[in-house]
Design a protein that fits this description.
alpha/beta
Length: 374
């Protein structure tokens, strides 16, 4: 386990990665209907360029297709909640599956938590994978080790956390999959530390940005979708989120996934994670940093400079998008060329919104299985 009080820039510096990367581009697009995954019938797949079969590698030991599962089947995880010191944090995380199985790191977003993967996890463990599902900084049982550490929500800090967690768990390389903040974090790790990422599954694709890009005005309709970002830029917004974080988060769930009929119990299981004492500070800093209204930590400056150049992703990647995503998100054709390794995009149909792994766990788990064979 790394010393949580030490910071080794060379260990985190992607410039020291001299391993060969995937170079030949391979693009594809397929569509999945969530309802098809909930039956025992064959899954219909439409592909504009490459079919899943054409992308599949020779069969491996784990099953190639997870068993059918209805969203909301599980309310608890097959493994216990653990704690481990990793970098500047004591991280709360779920670990499930065989200890020697291929590792998968699943990263949630805002305002969500580890329960976004409560149905995905058993599908992956049944396929022989070791699944790690951490609470991000500011969520659940994850805590800062020092009161003096800045409550920093900038993207590079979250990616740093992922690397620190892999180090603490002695995992050299993992499949990394996520959505929202988790997808952005996974993208960054894949771009800057490709030697630590065996494969990438990213909901809404390429989400790497910069403060400079965040300062550019968007068309009115696009700006309207980011209303909460502007709200968080004000003192009233921070106070309002602190006071009404439960109701605020539930509103975001409804807006981001307009066709997802989640019940109160499902929301409440996740909302408990927002009672973390650092949650409000981390969320507000994240969105203020994006607009250039808050500064980051100097130790991440080099990483942010590299990210501002919009680096390509060379590791095998599957991007996903729900057909009913009500949150701001880029179109797949806008980012396809950023993935220069083996790549396929899938649109998940059937009214799937922003919280894709919880709304459509089987297609998400399938993407993890498939990216391992690209």
């Amino acid at each position: 386990m790394p010393d949580s009080t030490q910071y080794d820039p060379r260990r985190l510096d992607p410039a020291h990665d001299d391993r060969p990367q995937y170079d030949p581009p391979r693009y594809g697009s397929v569509q999945y209907d969530r309802r098809q995954f909930l039956s025992a019938t064959a899954v219909g797949v439409a592909s504009t360029q490459l079919s899943v079969a054409a992308l599949a590698a020779p069969s491996a030991a784990p099953p190639s297709k997870p068993s059918p599962i209805a969203p909301g089947t599980n309310t608890s995880f097959p493994g216990p909640l653990k704690q481990i010191n990793a970098g500047s944090l004591n991280v709360g995380y779920i670990e499930a599956g065989p200890a020697k199985g291929p590792p998968v790191l699943l990263l949630h977003g805002w305002p969500y938590d580890i329960y976004s993967f409560v149905d995905v996890t058993p599908l992956l463990t049944a396929a022989g994978y070791r699944v790690i599902v951490p609470y991000l900084r500011g969520y659940g049982t994850t805590r800062f080790l020092s009161a003096d550490t800045p409550r920093n929500g900038q993207p590079a800090a979250l990616a740093h956390d992922a690397i620190d967690l892999l180090d603490a768990l002695k995992i050299q390389k993992a499949i990394i999959a996520g959505f929202d903040w988790g997808a952005r974090t996974a993208d960054i790790v894949a771009a800057l530390w490709p030697d630590r990422c065996k494969g990438l599954v990213s909901v809404s694709g390429y989400l790497i940005g910069s403060q400079a890009a965040g300062k550019n005005p968007l068309p009115p309709q696009a700006e309207y979708q980011w209303w909460y970002q502007f709200y968080f830029a004000t003192d009233r917004g921070k106070e309002g989120y602190s006071k009404y974080r439960h109701d605020f988060s539930k509103l975001i769930w409804k807006l981001a996934s307009p066709q997802w009929k989640f019940d109160d119990a499902t929301f409440d299981r996740s909302a408990a994670a927002f009672d973390n004492p650092d949650h409000v500070d981390i969320v507000i800093h994240n969105y203020r940093w994006r607009q250039g209204l808050a500064t980051g930590e100097p130790r991440y400056d080099d990483f942010e400079q590299r990210l501002a150049a919009a680096p390509e992703v060379k590791v095998p990647t599957i991007t996903l998008e729900g057909d009913a995503n009500g949150a701001p998100h880029p179109l797949p054709e806008a980012y396809a060329k950023k993935f220069v390794g083996k790549y396929v995009h899938r649109t998940i149909t059937g009214g799937v919104g922003h919280n894709l792994p919880q709304e459509a766990p089987q297609p998400f788990a399938q993407a993890v299985l498939d990216v391992d064979k690209l």
